[in-house]
Amino acid sequence: MDVERVLGRLGDAARPGPTVLFIAGMHGNEPAGLLALERVFKDFDGERGSVVNGNVLALAGNLPALSRAVRFVDRDLNRLWVRARLPGEDARPEDAPSVEHAERIELLRELRKAVRDAQGPVFCIDLHTTSGDGPPFVVFSDTLRNRRFVAKWPCPLILGIEERIGGSLSECMSLSGAVAAAFEGGRHDDPASVDWHEAAIRIAMVSAGSVRAQDMPGYDEARRMLRDASRGIPRILDVIYRHGLRQDHDFEMSPGFPNFTPVMRGRRLATDADPDDPELRVAVTAQRTGRILLPLYQGQGDDGYFIARVISRLWLFISGLMRRCWIDRLVTYLPGVRRVPGPGGKRGGWLERRYEIDRRVARWLAEDVFHLAGFRVVHETDEMVRVARRPHDLRAPEKVDL
Ligand SMILES: [Zn+2]
Question: 26: CA distance to ligand 1 center in Å?
């Protein structure tokens, strides 16, 4: 698929109101978001565009990968958004070391311009599809502002994937002060994926406040469609495990694990080459009990699968309350938890502080509690996990700093 970087604009940058950024085709084999944006934007052609508050901008992600219909050419573009390593304003695509590094420079230029011109809050929605089957769902970094935004989406809400993969655009936007989420709208080549994306785009525009529900064509139908598609699936899940793949892996997911399949610890999920003897194949079994997410049923990618556990609404409510009342700080006194210096040896304020959880002492519980108390994983090994508090959790910054 050959497309321009800017897929469409609605509203007026000078008009006060939210700035809503949609990104589609961050992975070149996921065209559903582009097709759906085209459908929705058509509804606001000409005069009909006057109902839009603020402005809405739709951008295409990885143009060279889209034209070849592959996930990426050299590098996964949705792993390059590590905030501390973003290129400066003067970076030039022609000097970039890979196709995706050049794409990042161009995309970043558009994002920075939109953020600079914003006259109100900034929302960023990254549109994706999956290689496995299953209903649509929303992935987001667990800040209370992001929670409020996705609460109106009638489909499963997933916490904790972003921080485990590292370098995703929506995590980067969230850390920069925007409200952000990623939508995973069905299997790559399923025609229903385009309908689900269309529904998600309409709902996102209403939840962000760009268009009032009564001015959004097909709004009730959109809500009904997502609700029906995810019937019987738990509403909120927290990712507790990522099965990362080695560079020389030969991972093969067993068939029959659509998104959200419940698995018990020890169940055989896949096979892979033995790291010590590549001639041998070994079974990969579930490390924890929970629901399978994003199983890898395609060649490209380095996440084998994720395991998530179901979170009750009550627990979510309590964790929100904890953060508002600053009780979240108590979790740092749990056994097996110690404070460690932040980046560059800084001890700094609350947001810069790092805590290390010793997995041999604290097991999984402390980690799960930290997660819901608003901490994100910044580094993990088999023995320990290092966490830091999420910025911009309760309040938007004056200006998004990208
Ligand atoms: Zn994707």
Answer: 6
Q: Given this model, what pLDDT does residue 149 score?
A: 96
Q: Please check whether residue 144 lies inside any domain of the structure.
A: yes
Q: Do 52 and 140 belong to one domain?
A: yes
Nearest to 22 by CA among 186, 220, 182, 222: 182
CA of 28 to the centre of ligand 1 (A): 8
> What is the whole-number distance in angstroms between the Cα of residue 350 and the centre of ligand 1?
33
> 382: Cβ–Cβ under 8 A, 6 or more apart, which residues?
359
- Residue 64's domain comprises 6-233
Give per-residue pLDDT as tens, 129-177. 998 888 999 999 999 999 999 998 999 999 988 888 889 999 999 999 9
Whole-number Å distance, alpha carbon 129 to ligand 1 midpoint, is: 6
Which residues are CB-contacts of 322 (< 8 A; sequence separation ≥ 6)? 328, 372, 373
Full-model pTM: 0.91
Compute the distance from residue 78 Cα to the ligand 1 centre, in Å.
Answer: 8
Residue 163 alpha carbon to ligand 1 centre in Å: 16
**Which pLDDT score, from 0 to 100, does residue 371 have?**
79
Instruction: Say if residues 350 and 326 touch (Cβ distance below 8 Å).
Output: no
Same domain? For 192 and 260 the reply is no
Residues 345-356: b if buried by 16+ CB within 10 A, e if exposed = eeeeeeeebbbb
- Which pLDDT value is given to residue 346? 58
CA dihedral for 308, 313, 316, 318, sign (positive or negative): negative
| pLDDT < 70 stretches in the chain | 13, 328, 343-351, 363-364
Residue 254 and residue 201 share a domain: no
Where a domain ends, among 310, 339, 362?
310
Whether residue 173 sits in one domain with residue 61: yes
Residues by chain with Cβ below 5 Å of ion ligand 1: 27, 30, 128
Q: Could you tell me how far CA 349 lies from the centroid of its own chain? A: 27
- Expressed in angstroms and rounded, the spacing between residue 326 Cα and the centre of ligand 1 is 35
pLDDT at 379: 84
- 156 CB burial (10 A radius; 0-12, 13-18, 19+): buried
Within a domain: residue 1?
no
Task: State residue 211's pLDDT score.
Answer: 96
pLDDT of residue 224: 97
